[in-house]
């Protein structure tokens, strides 16, 4: 560990902390699993069923927490590597939250810019606020190439063709109405330059509808590392390249 002039240890730099996605969900899931396990000890006629239900719910809680704290980060590292970025692109992350995808992208853009937009809902991510995102960018050493804006995905404050890449990680489905979700996808395509890449990760039914709406793109499931409690809440990636 490095030291200052009076030989006292300097604090280690803080690593980025991205919080928990939809924190109420794993809290409820874990509480329900614990309640089932406790009830199994008191309700003998249904002991086996209650024990099994509790085990499934608690296992789902563990899978959820692994995904939100580590699994999704590893998968986005892989997907951004496969995007074959030159390093000078302008990238926009929709619903950036505390910056998990935004900052991982910024690491790959030494001569570029990574811009995040969000409405900063704490229901969607714990501790969600722009200051947390900027602090994470500083901790990752990429603050000089990261910017964040408070903006609605359905009405982006950017000109047509402003970005080379647009990403979004499990954010568009939080928009309440289907029509507004499609507007967000349309806005993502609008701000992309011709030849730019769209990378949207969302639950399978949503990702399929986005692809059908824009009439292009490929869909690929992202595997167990992106399960929110189990395969029934697995995440699919929509990858599209803007042609015109």
Question: What's the short version?
Answer:
The protein has six helices and seven strands, in the order H-H-E-H-E-H-E-E-H-E-H-E-E. With 244 residues, it is an alpha/beta fold.
CATH second-level architecture of one domain: 3-Layer(aba) Sandwich
Task: Determine Rg (CA atoms, Å).
Answer: 20 Å
Mean pLDDT: 92
Q: Given this structure, which CATH class of one domain is correct?
A: Alpha Beta
Number of helices: 6
CATH topology of one domain: Rossmann fold
Structural class: alpha/beta
Strand fraction: 15-25%
Strand order of the largest sheet: 3-2-1-4-5-7-6
Topology, number of strands = 7
Largest sheet geometry: 7 strands, mixed
Low-confidence stretches: 1-13
Q: Could you give me the name of the CATH homologous superfamily of one domain?
A: Vaccinia Virus protein VP39
What key phrases describe this protein's structure?
disordered N terminus, Methyltransf_11, alpha/beta, 244 residues, membrane, 39% helix, Rossmann fold, transmembrane helix, 19% strand, 6 helices
């Amino acid at each position: 560990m490095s030291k200052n002039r009076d030989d006292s240890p300097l604090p280690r730099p803080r690593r980025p902390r991205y919080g928990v996605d939809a924190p109420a969900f794993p809290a409820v899931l874990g509480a329900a699993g614990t309640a089932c396990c406790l009830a199994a000890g008191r309700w003998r006629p249904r002991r086996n069923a209650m024990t099994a239900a509790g085990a499934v719910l608690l296992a789902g809680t563990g899978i959820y927490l692994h995904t939100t704290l580590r699994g999704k980060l590893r998968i986005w590292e892989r997907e951004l590597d496969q995007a074959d970025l030159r390093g000078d692109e302008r990238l926009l992350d929709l619903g950036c939250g505390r910056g998990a995808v935004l900052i991982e992208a910024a690491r790959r853009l030494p001569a570029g810019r990574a811009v995040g937009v969000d409405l900063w809902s704490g229901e969607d991510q714990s501790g969600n606020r722009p200051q947390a995102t900027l602090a994470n960018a500083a901790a990752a050493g990429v603050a000089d190439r990261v910017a964040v804006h408070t903006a609605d995905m359905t009405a982006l404050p950017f000109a047509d063709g402003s970005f080379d890449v647009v990403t979004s990680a499990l954010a568009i489905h939080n928009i309440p109405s289907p029509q507004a979700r499609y507007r967000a996808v349309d806005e993502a395509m609008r701000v992309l330059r011709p030849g730019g890449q769209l990378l949207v990760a969302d639950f399978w039914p949503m990702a399929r509808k986005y692809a059908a709406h824009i009439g292009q793109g490929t869909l690929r499931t992202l595997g167990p590392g992106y399960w929110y409690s189990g395969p029934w809440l697995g995440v699919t990636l929509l990858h599209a390249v803007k042609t015109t």
